[in-house]
Amino acid sequence: MTEHLPILLIVLPLVAAPLCVILHQRTAAYTLALLVSWITFGISIALVAQVNQTGVIRYNLGGWAPPYGIEYLVDSLSSFVMMFVSGIGAIVLVYAPKSVDDEIARSKHYLFYATYLLCLTGLMGMCVTGDLFNVFVFLEISSLSSYALISLGQTRRAPLAAFQYLIIGSIGATFILIGIGLLYQMTGTLNMADIAARVPQENGPRTVLVAFSFLVIGLCVKMAVFPLHTWLPNAYTYAPSVVTCFIAATATKVSVYAFIRVIFGIITPGFAFDYLPLDTELTILALVGIFVASTAAIYQANVKRLLAYSSVAQIGYMILGISMSTPGGLTAGIVHMFNHALIKGGLFMIVGCFALRLGSVKLDDWKGAGKTMPWTSLGWAIGGLALIGVPVTAGFISKWLLLTAAMEKGMWPVAVLMLLSSLLAVVYVWRVVETLYFSEPTAKVLKAKEAPLGMLIPTYVVLAGTFVFGVWTTYSADLAAAAAAGLLGATP
Amino acid sequence: MNSPALEQAAGLYNYWIVIVLMMTGFYIVLARRNLIKAVIGLNIFQTSVFLLYVTMGKVRGGTAPIIPPEVAEAQAKAMHETGHSEHGTHALGTVSEEIVGAHAAHADLPGADIIYSNPLPSVLMLTAIVVGIATTALALALVVRIREDYGTIEEDRILEIDRADGLPDDDDEDQWIDADTHSLAGSSPDTPTDSESVN
Amino acid sequence: MNWVVFAILALLALTAVTVARLRQLWAAVMFTGIYSFLSASWMMILDAPDVAFTEAAVGAGISTVLMLSTLALTGEQEQPTKRSPIVPLLVVLVTGGALIYGTLDMPHYGDPNAVVHQHPDPSFVERSLDDMHGLPNVVTALLASYRGYDTLGETTVVLTAGIAVLLILRRDEMERPAIANRAKRRRRKANA
């Protein structure tokens, strides 16, 4: 049984999705989705434990060994990413029902939960597969379902945002497909490990170079790396609250994971960073992105959009860590994926609570909500502290690791710029705190009730996580360090 | 013109034409101001990528990777005679050696001299075509929805309407309400926004 | 044979450029269908009959039908745009240039010694002869067996698209409390 866990991870949500459609009843569909997402979370924890004990798990689908068949590969990195992606997916579903009832038509609920599960399937599939073309297929599953989920937003701008994301996302996916094709042309295989072993380093570098660039550009679109982030603010702003919580916390992270795989698992850092000056380019893009996006966040009147720009900035920190290509930097990048998923997931959940009670995500409509919705407002403050990176929060851990890694490499300017950029985060988090606590409440806010416990409890669980993993790093930073060591060790 | 360059051109012109096709599709997507035109461009872009893959699979003098029945039959018979490759050899992880051996043994069978083109790119593209049509279907559904809500599928027009509604960051959540109060009152279910730009 | 290929390639390029220039969306959709058919013909010559059939059925058939039915709902004329085409043109030229640069190290067209045809060894055709007990079509063998999970994924993509279209096209604003409440408030305000 245990040897089939990697495939169960995919097949369970995959089979549950059409079942949700067949059930056709909202409560039944919700219960099934909830159950399956928690089982998926359980399986991925089991996989983390198994990888810790026995090392890398390889699973040949259908018993066909690579390079003929498709191989699933669970190592410390992929199990780590799967753990937090499925974890967020599960907890957001606990949080979901009230918000979904409010924002999405009842007759659509069963379809909504089916699509949610499909999105989860796609994301998990991208993590677990060791086959490059299979990554493309799962990427499309997760993308198509997220376009549909985003289009369910409350305004007519939601379908438009979904469409624009679809066009940009499909261009990205087609670039990835071209990259995969060129790599296949030069190696004759689609299995990542096999490609890594067969990539002709001296022979035919031009094709490999172009293949690599196309893969990187395609993934940068999906990761929303500045300046290819244009789809993200609209998509996050106009999507239903629950969808934003889930997608913001997971989808870009999984693309970052795929990016790490491509650089360290296929093309080797030697080729990416020594032959190409990719590290300098990425560092510059990351820094510019952090500053531009953080500054943009300060000027937003819509809290969801504020957080969306902040997400673009946070992706910059991850890229910064990855582009250092030292164990320290890579660990920081990986652990920030996890920490940021928790923090941003929590913050968007808070936004969802406000949206439910106040019917708006505009900052002006939140004036004085600290009085009538104290717990929700406190949640924002807690999440905000973690986002800034105050000590004993998870955000501090990743920034500290990033900072030390930058100093180890002697990148003093980068370290200074990072500190400066945190000040920008202070500004945009403070703006909301100020509105919540130090403004005169409007009549509407005075009538508002505290968010329901069914939403507050999961939100606080996630926010508590940002503290737990800010102090106790066995299951975050240590796992990330193991993953980073595995990646750097595996490459010659 | 030296001859290596000419030879290269002769060997690669197929790919170059495919690239020109891909880029035409890409251009249509980037330069479009009409939503349907964007979908059309995406279609052409993707179809051209299919061509890129399929071109890779071709072997000069080869034929489609379909084994003539009589050859397949002869091979199957030969296999039974040597008694190899019954069930159980495909368990996890068994690869090559015995199959390589079997392959050598098959060399003198009829049809062993047929050159087949590579089947793998075809397989990948069958998957990609289906993914492509799924994307197209979803995109068109969104276009229909956008047309209902905005009354136009011209991107410039839509952005103008959005700007008229309010600041880009100030999403006016009441946009749909007009439409629905109207339709509740029994008026046309069509959207309230201007339809002057259509046609 | 060669001139047939040349003719198809020239027609493909011509069709693509025509689509780019056309403002009549109905005609553009038709030309996209033609483009798919031409692609399918070339795929036939490239020894990929399975892909050719699928492209003809899906690319030229289903997708044309879908687009035409969408056009029936949306109107079929593209407005002229004031924007300059220079930026997209530059992006496309750079991308295309990069791709052409990338082909320079590629094995030539049809080269039997290309890596794709040498690895894995034994090839899929030989493997499938042994594993599939005489199934003639190797593409089928790969699709359903060696890469069966890609096919499962592909089916899932179709399922996703189906559910998504249902989600998107069903109109439901007044069923949503969030929107209905706002509408109610607004009407009350208007009455007051």
Automatic annotation (TrEMBL), chain A:
InterPro entries: CPA3_Na-H_Antiporter_D, ND/Mrp_TM. Keywords: Cell membrane, Membrane, Transmembrane, Transmembrane helix. Coiled coil: none annotated. The keyword Transmembrane applies. The chain crosses the membrane at residues 6-23, 30-52, 72-97, 109-126, 132-150, 162-187, 207-226, 238-260, 280-299, 337-358, 378-398, 410-430, 451-472. Residues 130-424 form the NADH:quinone oxidoreductase/Mrp antiporter transmembrane domain. Belongs to the CPA3 antiporters (TC 2.A.63) subunit D family. This is Monovalent cation/H+ antiporter subunit D. It comes from Rhodopirellula europaea 6C. The lineage of its organism: Bacteria, Pseudomonadati, Planctomycetota, Planctomycetia, Pirellulales.
From TrEMBL, chain C:
GO terms for cellular component: plasma membrane. Residues 10-74 form the MrpA C-terminal/MbhD domain. The chain crosses the membrane at residues 51-74, 86-104, 151-169. It is found in: Cell membrane. Residues 122-180 form the MrpA C-terminal/MbhE domain. It is a multi-pass membrane protein. InterPro entries: CPA3_Na-H_Antiporter_A, MrpA_C/MbhD, MrpA_C/MbhE. Keywords: Cell membrane, Membrane, Transmembrane, Transmembrane helix, Transport. The keyword RNA-binding does not apply. Pfam families: MbhD (PF13244), MbhE (PF20501). PANTHER family: NA(+)/H(+) ANTIPORTER SUBUNIT, NA(+)_H(+) ANTIPORTER SUBUNIT A. This is Monovalent cation/H+ antiporter subunit B.
